[in-house]
Amino acid sequence: MSEQPAPVLEIESLSAGYGRFDVVRDVALTVGKGEAVALLGPNGAGKTTVLHAIMGLVRQRRGLIRVGGTDVSALPPHRIARGLAAIAPEGRRLFLDQSVEDNLVLGALHLRRDRARVERLLGSVYEIFPVLKAYRHRLSSFLSGGEQQMVAIGRMLMSDPQVMLLDEPSVALSPVAVDIVVKAMLELRRRGASLLLVEQRIDVATRVCDRLYVMTHGEIVDKLTPDMVRSGGMSILNKYLG
Ligand SMILES: Nc1ncnc2c1ncn2[C@@H]1O[C@H](COP(=O)(O)OP(=O)(O)OP(=O)(O)O)[C@@H](O)[C@H]1O
Ligand SMILES: [Mg+2]
Question: 54 CA to middle of ligand 2, Å?
Answer without folding.
Answer: 14
